[in-house]
Amino acid sequence: MQANPSLLKQLKDIHMPKAIGIWPLAPGWWIVIGIVMLILIATIYFILKRRGKITAKKLALQQLYALEEEYSADTNTNLLSDLAILLRRAAIAYYPRSNIAKLHGEKWLAFLDETSKSKRYTQGVGRALLHGPYAASYEDDLTPIFSLVKSWIKRLH
Predict the structure, then answer these.
(1) CB neighbours of 8 closer than 8 A, spacing ≥ 6?
(2) What is the reported pTM?
């Protein structure tokens, strides 16, 4: 068998198909991108939330130190009221507002005891926060209350 030269001239070279492009992406890659985006968004959310709580703690401690300076200088007569407000604001920054806003009286002191893991609010110097803010004047030493509030704020996480 001899090959016909005219038939050999009609043969063409083998052409490879075009390389597979990166676009459009396969469905599996879309799933991977979606999961990575969810993880990224969740991480950013928790970082920002944590940063906000740390900032709230720093601000609360700064306000507490300012109140202590006012106490040592005898320039503020409503210190117990200011301490009660500071505690409430710090609690709202760290715990759900709907749970904190409804607390008052003994329930508020019980919440402070529960979160500080002590009994110093319901059975100790913290009881001054129950009626002291509404009294015309409070004559007792506030130093133990300042240390109690400071330890409660530092325990926030």
Answers:
(1) none
(2) 0.66
